[in-house]
Amino acid sequence: xxxxxxxxxxxxxxxxxxxxxxxxxxxxxxxxxxxxxxxxxxxxxxxxxxxxxxxxxxxxxxxxxxxxxxxxxxxxxxxxxxxxxxxxxxxxxxxxxxxxxxxxxxxxxxxxxxxxxxxxxxxxxxxxxxxxxxxxxxxxxxxxxxxxxxxxxxxxxxxxxxxxxxxxxxxxxxxxxxxxxxxxx
Length: 185
Prior knowledge:
The protein is of the alpha+beta class. It has 2 domains: 3-78 and 163-178, no CATH class; 81-159, 2-Layer Sandwich (D-Amino Acid Oxidase, Chain A, domain 2). The chain contains 3 helices and 11 strands. It is elongated.
């Protein structure tokens, strides 16, 4: 995935990181890392091609999702996961595109439903459920109640907060920082 294909917020964060001197690798899969003096050596492979490339850094920031390979390589504990389902929808006519909506419906989810604008005309409506719970049907019924038509459904497992996990690790003399709930970029 190229920089121009990333959501606007992530694109801006990448641009800001690069202006500050960081190198951001997109379209790569993290394979592993190991210490090497004051630097860290890490290996990535292109999505789908399997060819490993070795890189070196003073600091490594893992923003590779809740199942982060960077976190695993740095010795972080495995996270508890919960199911998430969401739908891309047209925003309701009465909803400004700079406002999020949240509904608390405890009989459906111990969390909440959200509607977050993605653009002036579209947003993402979703919920997180308990493991083993059938949440797709709950989302579909909620969409009907709100008179919203799904354009596309998305689902994933996301990290469930159970306790604070430090986002900094040392590998040898190098620093590894984790943005664990970040999307794959």
